[in-house]
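Figure 3 (text version): structure tokens given as input.
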């Protein structure tokens, strides 16, 4: 009989690509943990990584992950901590090879097995899938992907926890994936450690909720927390969250001792409703979690107990995240100083628009904000503001067009306002803006049977 642990501790180490560099090191050195989960991917990230790979076949993954692993690998190996990360982006194997090279550099040859999860990248299969009748219709508009096929930059199915579980079962200490769901990086370790069946829907739902709570890092332990935010202690030393799970599916959210931030029912609740959608059906590749059944209880200082979660069977579909080229955009800013800061900014906006109109330029969209007056709360916010007393206002103008030419001309028309427009421009942020390519998002569904995850082991 396989011996199962009583509790398993999964630490959240990164909530996105660019999160706090100190977090993973603090998580593996600040106290006991069994797993370190590191989430790097967002929808637009995949297209960025695909562009990198198209320029250099050795790239296409979150490079920060390699420097992080170089710092923590000695501790990870010494303490037997397992790592799950979707840092592989669109090139998980290259990412794994880079980690293996780091392990050898650190003298850890023969002491680390790396699992690589692939199968999510559908970019090279799109034409074949479309030809076989898989339209990959946009979930928002119903349009078939064929309409934008020639502009597609990346296409990735969201894999679930199953291949992560397989990699762990086969002996991987570090599991590197492509587009595995944020929640799957936590659920996978729990399924592996406790031996949960893939149709144990309540426990699958519980592990999914656990993953959702810690997937954004410190956002559940005091970061970006609205409730009583002024009293959250020592945010410079914020502790990242840890799931302390039990085999029955219940778990506590905690953090390491002597760290800042706060874990309470309010902070956990704020993260729970983040990107939630339908609370009755939080759908993942692994199962469906019913968020209305979640019970939260303050079980001690910086300890929230989560229990009662109910789940439903998984669907027969996977979500596909497609990114495609849409056009061009640019954003320019000018800061106007008191007196009459808002009035000056509005005048500059009128002048800019007239000049663009006189040039015969048309844009798909043109949007103006007066930061400091209406950008956060909209025009209604002006009712509570003494407009004449506003010390400074940032004029922020953005344009969008299918072609680059009008966007480029816009960038050349906003800068002259410094000298040929209203007075007292005090800041021209970043110099003259440059046209940027727009990457648009196309969500779709595909039959699960059309996506086959694969697991490979790499020995150091």
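Below: residues designed for each position.
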């Amino acid at each position: 009989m396989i011996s199962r642990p009583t509790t398993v501790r999964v630490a959240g180490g990164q909530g996105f690509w660019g999160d706090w560099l100190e977090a993973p090191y603090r998580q593996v050195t600040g106290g006991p943990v069994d797993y370190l989960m590191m989430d790097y991917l967002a929808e637009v990230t995949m297209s960025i990584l695909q562009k990198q790979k198209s320029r250099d076949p050795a790239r296409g993954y979150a490079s920060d992950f390699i420097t992080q692993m170089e710092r923590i690998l000695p501790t990870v190996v010494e303490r037997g901590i397992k790592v799950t990360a979707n840092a592989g982006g669109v090139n998980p194997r290259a990412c794994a090879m880079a980690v293996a090279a780091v392990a050898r550099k650190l003298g850890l040859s023969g002491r680390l097995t790396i699992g690589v999860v692939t199968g999510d990248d559908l970019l090279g299969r799109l034409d074949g899938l479309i030809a076989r009748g898989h339209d990959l219709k946009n979930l928002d508009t119903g349009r078939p992907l064929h309409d934008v096929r020639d502009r597609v930059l990346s296409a990735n199915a969201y894999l679930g926890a199953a291949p992560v579980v397989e990699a762990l079962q086969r002996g991987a200490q570090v599991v590197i994936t492509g587009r595995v769901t944020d929640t799957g990086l936590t659920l996978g370790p729990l399924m592996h450690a406790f031996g949960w069946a893939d149709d144990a829907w309540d426990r699958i739902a519980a592990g999914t909720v656990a993953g959702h709570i810690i997937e954004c890092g410190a956002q559940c332990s005091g970061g970006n927390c609205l409730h009583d935010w002024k009293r959250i202690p020592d945010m410079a030393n914020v502790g990242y969250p840890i799931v302390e799970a039990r085999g029955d599916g219940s778990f506590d959210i905690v953090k390491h001792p002597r760290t800042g931030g706060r874990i309470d029912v309010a902070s956990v609740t704020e993260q729970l409703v983040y990107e939630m959608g339908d609370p009755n059906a939080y759908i993942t590749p692994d199962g469906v979690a019913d968020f209305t059944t979640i019970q939260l209880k303050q079980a001690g200082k910086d300890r929230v107990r989560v229990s009662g979660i109910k789940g439903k069977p998984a669907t027969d579909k996977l979500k596909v995240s497609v990114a495609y080229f849409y056009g061009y955009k640019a954003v320019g800013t000018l800061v106007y100083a008191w007196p009459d800061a808002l009035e000056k900014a509005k005048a500059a906006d009128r002048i800019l628009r007239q000049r663009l109109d006189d040039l015969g330029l048309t844009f798909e969209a043109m949007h103006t904000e007066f930061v400091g007056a209406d950008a956060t709360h909209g025009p209604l916010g002006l009712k509570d503001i003494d407009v004449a007393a506003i010390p400074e206002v940032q004029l922020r103008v953005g344009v969008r067009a299918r072609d680059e030419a009008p966007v480029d001309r816009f960038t050349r028309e906003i800068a002259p306002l410094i000298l040929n427009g209203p007075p007292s421009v005090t800041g021209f942020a970043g110099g003259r803006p440059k046209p940027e390519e727009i990457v648009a998002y196309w969500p779709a569904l595909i039959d699960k049977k059309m996506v086959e995850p694969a697991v490979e082991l790499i020995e150091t």
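The longest helix spans residues 341-358.
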